[in-house]
Amino acid sequence: MGNDLKAKKLYITIDGYRMEDKFSGLDDSIKIEMLRKMYQIRHFEDETEQFIIRGMIHGTCHLYTGEEATAVGAIYAINDDDYITSTHRGHGHCIAKGADLNIMMAELLGKRTGCCKGKGGSMHIADVDSGNLGANGVVGGGIGIATGAALTCKMKKSGKIVICFFGDGAANQGIFHSSINIASIWDLPIIYLCENNVYGMSTPVKEAFNIEKISDRKCAYGIEGLTIDGNNLVEVFNTVSHFSGECRAGRGPVLIESLTYRWRGHSKSDAQVYRTREEIRQWVERGPIERYKKILIGGEILTEKEDKDLEKEVAVQLDKATKFAMESPFPEPSEVEDDVYA
Amino acid sequence: MREIQYREAIREAIIEEMDRDRKVFLIGEDVGVYGGAFKAYKGLLDKYGPDRVINTPISETAIIGAGIGAALTGYRPIVEIMFIDFAALAMDQIANQAAKIHFMSGGRLNVPLVIRTQGGVGKGLATQHSQSLEAWFYHIPGLKVVMPATSYDVKGLLKTAIRDNSPVMFIEHKMTYPVKGAVPEEEYTIPFGKADIKRKGEDITIFAYSNMVLKSIEAAEELEREGISCEVVDPRTIVPLDIDEVINSVKKTGRLIIVSEACRRGSVASDISARVTERVFEYLKAPVKIVAGLDTPIPYNSTLEWASIPQKSDIIKAVKELLEEIL
Ligand SMILES: Cc1ncc(C[n+]2csc(CCOP(=O)(O)OP(=O)(O)O)c2C)c(N)n1
Ligand SMILES: [Mg+2]
């Protein structure tokens, strides 16, 4: 009987799209793994914040705190060898896609052992080995690149797909329009995943758009699109699972708007005069980790104690990454002229 | 005289010009409540309201386009591009449209547009937020290019830029915003195409603009203590360029160093060198020397970042080398 239940597919409807509830069929270990990833991102960002406060980060940083469910839910719904492109707020995507925490932390401190040899820093953090084609300092800069990677997938018939992460702010760059149109007429296997975190720097989404939902723009390109609760990992996972299948079947692209919220200031220097403490508090209460944890504990997939232990393990891992980063050497000045050409 | 920060000098210029002329307005990303990424517009939204301080979505191409269109039809917009690196997104509007319209229309249309932006190294912002791209604009006929180094210059030149009837690339430097300098209480403007001798000297001419003026002055002060007298010439606007002032200085000293934060290849510095050599070759006691940024993107790590552009020590070294060289 147990087997019968397992075999039976459950269906759900998200923003008008009926799809299989793939999450419920996942192994418990994977469900817990996703929580671990979210903790890794949260702790990585907390650690980074400490470095910022202590003046140890030379450049700026854009923290992903509060948005963890979008990166983790989406990236766990695709394959390891699929591609992503990331943004200036890229630590979360990078961790979720499988980058090593040590080399990421070393990069933030500008060390030679960093994933970009200390040349990229936070805004260009990426671990190419894990299929991450790069963070981006230019808002919208990744949208064209992701589209090209999807063209490769199609031409090679590799069966791979691309997730293109970008912010609400980036959706108002011209490249958003021209890239999605091209992807549409070429049927490219790509998920355009817009992280609507309510603000682009100081500008609220409601002042930058005159439409209800950013995903409404799907009509302009003749593609599918929907808006989801980006702080609900299960919803993100199921949506991306469904549409990654569509993309692999040649029915891409798709535009997914994931509603979430940035808990911290836009960057290192932001007095946050454009929002209230009350607004932040309300979103923190509906935080993605907090909500997902409840689902796992409520479903008896995880006990309170196991959850605490999991978080502790992650904290130890982060301590190790910090130690590795601190003890790593800086590059020599002469290395500045390396890597200009391939 | 009172001393104010470079960013305060910008704000004063804008307030004076907005009060003087209703046609002047501000447009750009995060120029509203945020007060501009480098806080030059602090309080301006409250003072002038959202009709004259227009906060925009992140759409550089459209913002510049809107500025051009408004300028063509009677306004005098000041468009802010947060980092000069992002001017790349709007290059058609700047180089093919704004720069050409007056000429293409046989002089019948004007584009009184100021594009305020900033560039340069120093804040660990890596490859896409640290470039010195003035050569791109220097190269395009039809654009004026202003690169002020001090509070005094930025205020007087910005007022002139706003009153100019041609499109002006007004390029600030991210490291100069907090630097204080003397600025009179009374109103003044500074004409374009008029270089300023930032420091008088006899032995060698140092030509520098933007933040490199400040580094060159520091170098000159240190060299003074060793008995070497440097004349620091700051063109302030590179288009139009006051080449005569440079020539006069070189005629006196016989030696020229050009300091450029921008990378050497295809730089403004290379062009200045050619122009001076063409005009006063016979006065030169040694070849013109260029101290410029390396031909690499700007790295994140602070040591590498530092190594990628000229420092005071590089200028001092170059001066000493040049003084030893005889043609
Ligand atoms: C082309 C460009 N314009 C402006 C900026 C400055 N900037 C950096 S991040 C940002 C806001 C981006 O908003 P959004 O895309 O919503 O991403 P979020 O920061 O909210 O994650 C801005 C204006 C930039 N980096 N690139
Ligand atoms: Mg945003």
Description:
The complex is a heterodimer of chains A (342) and B (327). Chain A has one domain: Rossmann fold. In chain A, 44% of the residues lie in helices and 12% in strands. Chain A has 13 helices and 9 strands. In chain A, a hairpin with a 2-residue loop joins strand 1 (11-14) and strand 2. In chain A, helix 3 (68-75) packs parallel to helix 10, helix 5 (101-108) crosses helix 13 (304-327) and helix 6 runs parallel beside helix 7 (174-185). Chain B is 37% helix and 20% strand. In chain B, the strands form 3 sheets. In chain B, strands 3-2-4-5-7-6-12 form a 7-stranded mixed sheet, with helices on both faces. Chain B has a 5-stranded mixed sheet with strand order 9-11-10-13-14, with helices on both faces. Chain B has a two-stranded antiparallel ribbon with strand order 1-8. The longest helix of chain B is centred in the N-terminal third of the chain and has 15 residues, at 6-20. The radius of gyration of chain B is 20 Å and the shape is globular. The mean pLDDT of chain B is 97. Bound molecules: thiamine diphosphate and magnesium ion. Magnesium ion binds next to strand 6 of chain A.
Taken from the alpha-carbon principal axes, the silhouette of chain B is globular
> Can you name the CATH architecture of chain A?
3-Layer(aba) Sandwich
What is the second-level CATH architecture of the largest domain in chain B?
3-Layer(aba) Sandwich
Unreliable spans of chain B are none
Report Rg of chain B: 20 Å
CATH class of the largest domain in chain B: Alpha Beta
